[in-house]
Amino acid sequence: MSMTVTLIVEKTDTGFSAYSQDTAIFTTAQTVPELINNSYEAANLYYEDENVELGPGDILFEIDFKQFFKYYKVLNAKFLAEKIGMNATLLSQYVQGHKKPSSKQTKKILNGINQIGQELSGINLLQPA
């Protein structure tokens, strides 16, 4: 049986939490990688009696703009806005939660974030001599 579970990720005072709005799946962790691992463990425990095992691609992690930029402080909203051709003030309003982006705007922002991630993953830093 194939299924997808959506977990909402939030930054907390002690780290991160992830929970499902549809099931009783929830977990916490101090770091995002730990949260991801704990999420798979919690989801598989929840579905254990149904003999369902979830792996990569079966859990969709969702995080709102404000939470995303709160955690990934290295990603500057002004830089991202310039990169994707969006008004920096508008993106800032999305980040602060004052406005909610349309699905088209959300896709544009996500594509920009993914593009930056691909660019960064292709860079090798020179070691100091």
Q: Would you kindly provide a brief summary of this structure?
A:
This protein is an alpha+beta fold and 129 residues long.
Describe this protein's structure.
This is Helix-turn-helix transcriptional regulator. It comes from Phaeocystidibacter luteus. This protein is α+β, with helices and mostly antiparallel strands. The chain folds into two domains: 5-62, 2-Layer Sandwich (Double Stranded RNA Binding Domain), CATH 3.30.160; 65-121, no CATH class. 45% of the residues lie in helices and 16% in strands. It has helices spanning 32-46, 65-71, 77-84, 88-96, 103-121; strands at 5-12, 15-19, 26-29, 59-62. It has a four-stranded mixed beta sheet with strand order 3-2-1-4. A hairpin with a 2-residue loop joins strand 1 (5-12) and strand 2. The termini are far apart. The model has no long low-confidence stretch (mean pLDDT 89).
Question: Secondary-structure blueprint of this entry?
Answer:
Elements: E1 5-12, E2 15-19, E3 26-29, H1 32-46, E4 59-62, H2 65-71, H3 77-84, H4 88-96, H5 103-121
Parallel strand pairs: 1-4
Antiparallel strand pairs: 1-2, 2-3
Helix pairs in contact: 3-4, 3-5
Descriptors for this entry?
Helix-turn-helix transcriptional regulator, alpha+beta, 129 residues, Double Stranded RNA Binding Domain, 2 domains
